[in-house]
Amino acid sequence: MFMLNPNIIKDEELEILLTDVSSLYGYDFTQYSRASLKRRLNRICVIDKFTSFAELRYNLIHHPEYLQRFIEEITVNVTEMFRDPSFYKALREKVFPKLGTYPFIRIWLAGCATGEEAYSIAILLKEANLYNRSLIYATDINPGVLEKARKGIFPISQMKQYSENYILSGGAADFSQYYTANYDMVKFDTDLKEKMIFSTHNLVSDSSFNEFQLIICRNVLIYFEKELQNKVFKLFNDSLDNFGFLALGAKETIRFSNLENHYKQVVTEKIWKKIK
Amino acid sequence: MVKRTEIFLIGGSAGSLTVLLEVLPQLNDDISFPIIIILHRKSHPDSVLNALLSNYTDLEVCEVEDKMTLKSRCIYLVPPDYHLLFEDKHTVSLDSSEKLNYSRPSIDVTFQSAAEIFKESAAALLLSGANADGVDGLQYIKQNSGLVVVQEPGTAEVDYMPKQAISQVKTDHVLRPDQMAGFINRLCR
Ligand SMILES: C[S@@+](CC[C@H](N)C(=O)[O-])C[C@H]1O[C@@H](n2cnc3c(N)ncnc32)[C@H](O)[C@@H]1O
After folding, report:
1. Which of B:89-148 have CB within 8 Å of A?
2. Which of A74, A97, A120 is the last residue of a domain?
3. Which of A133, A213, A240, B65 gives 20 to 30 Å between its CA and that of A44?
4. S-adenosyl-L-methionine: is it a keyword of this entry (chain B) (predicted)?
């Protein structure tokens, strides 16, 4: 059985599709990393049974309702709760004490996918007694994942792993107190989402919409080319309070960007403080 | 036709760490291409394994970061929980998409990506392991005229992976661990 994706879409064809989607629908993926895009496009051909570039293109052009599915599939939405526990531990120990000095805390979670990260942050804020004066703005390009995030319902099969992650992140409570199980799913407590605002926001084309003390954007920039990464760093810089914090994914860095000198890494995890 | 190797990929699962620890010390320190290692392991911090491997080689063991530029004379260990993809011959991307065959990193994914970018200048070695990750990837390497090398199953702690590879892919070389370093050193010309 061949589990890898076949090569249905050629490099030139990929460029044509990106141009179509940009000119017809205003979604600009032209500065996304090609290696991942190529895999995703070939994957969508397999899943949705397109046997050629022409078929996929026809569908995209003539069925505008297909666009949302297209975006959902060519972006990667994989996420977990307390992914990289040491990151959350660093937030608890090194960042939250600083955030605590603000009367009001605004957090932007950019590329929040199906929301697992948002619920993790909400739990952390609760345990640090900061929740009541915090607001979490959770955004994503993709309305479908936000819909799921709003529900806060996740498979029960994941809870063992999440609970282990939670403990490794320094969590001392019983993780299961945060949700109610129902058959094979669990629903996280509604008070965890009281302070969450979900909204679509496209990092490529939308502008800054508030000032934050903490911006978290993990495993989104890996899908962007360098130039687009720089543009997004500028957007974050414009949206971050002086001395605010910027947190990235485990393998992402602001180090090689033009803004490198404006930030100081505060822990070995990927968390920076804006210093000018 | 003489192929010039521009990238050397090593994939392995259960039983492959001991092979690496035997091979690494014997590698010349002027290897003319980057070496990429894709290992299945529990997703604990990669710093531990990086530090371990560093003790066994004169080559530099480099941390992989997204969009980093590859250097020759460097060994790169793909970090846990990411797939590694090639943007071009010098730049890699990390990708946190779905696991493939329960694996992330997936050997198949990186082998396939390397095959597409490097074509005949890719060389891939598949070691011991209990699953078939890497076998399809080797197929891609072969289809693109790259070099396919497999650990001799008799020497593998777990022979399933190399056996599958040999039975499904036209393998160029089947090597014992003690032959591997010499083989890699000789590719550097
Ligand atoms: C791999 S997920 C990361 C989820 C989570 N942050 C984590 O690290 O587990 C990447 C998310 O980025 C979103 N994304 C991709 N392009 C985007 C863009 N231009 N603007 C906003 N979000 C985007 C995708 O829809 C997806 O939900």
Report:
1. 93-98, 100-101, 108-109, 112-113, 116, 136-137, 140
2. A74
3. B65
4. no
Check which CATH number belongs to the domain holding A224 and give it.
3.40.50.150
Question: Do A50 and A94 fall into the same domain?
Answer: no
What's the pLDDT at B2? 63
Q: Are B118 and B85 in contact (CB under 8 A)?
A: no
Q: Is residue A27 part of a domain?
A: yes
Q: Percent of chain A at pLDDT above 90? A: 95
**How many beta carbons lie within 10 A of that of residue A72, not counting itself?**
15
Verify whether the Cβ–Cβ distance B97 to A253 is below 8 Å.
Answer: no
Domain tally for chain B?
1
| Atom of ligand 1 minimally distant from the CA of A79 | 9
Express each pLDDT in A199-225 by its tens digit: 999 999 999 999 999 999 999 999 999
ipTM above 0.90? yes
Residue A222 Cβ inside 6 Å of ligand 1? The answer reads no
Give CA–CA dist B139/B144, Å, rounded. 9
Whole-number average pLDDT of chain B: 94
Is there a single domain that holds both residue A41 and residue A170? no
- The whole-number pLDDT of residue A1 equals 38
Q: Are A89 and A217 found together in one domain?
A: yes
Rg value, chain B, Cα = 15
Point out the residue among B85, B86, B136 whose CB comes nearest to the CB of A4.
B136
**CATH number for the domain that contains residue B103:** 3.40.50.180
Residue A168 has pLDDT above 50, yes or no: yes
B179-182 CB contacts, 8 Å cutoff, 24+ apart? B180/B19, B180/B22, B180/B23, B180/B125, B180/B149, B180/B151, B181/B23, B181/B24, B181/B25, B181/B26, B181/B27, B182/B26
| Per-residue pLDDT tens digits for B94-137 | 999 999 989 999 999 999 999 999 999 999 999 999 999 999 99
Q: Is residue B2 part of a domain?
A: no
pLDDT tens track for A111-146: 999 999 999 999 999 999 999 999 999 999 999 999
Query: Cα–Cα distance between A41 and A73 in angstroms, integer?
Result: 8
Say if residue B77's pLDDT is above 60. yes
When pLDDT is cut at 50, 70 and 90, the band that residue A7 belongs to is: confident
In this structure, what token pair is assigned to residue A172? 């001392």
**How big is chain A, counted in residues?**
276
Domain end point (choices A74, A99, A120): A74
Residue B108 lies inside a defined structural domain of this protein: yes
Is residue B1 domain-resident? no
Q: What is the extent of the structural domain holding A51? A: 11-74
Q: How many domains does chain A have?
A: 2
In a domain, A251, yes or no: yes
B interface mutation test: which of A1, A3, A47, A157 has the most B CBs within 10 A?
A: A3
A61 found inside a domain:
yes
Give me the domain span that covers residue B67.
7-187
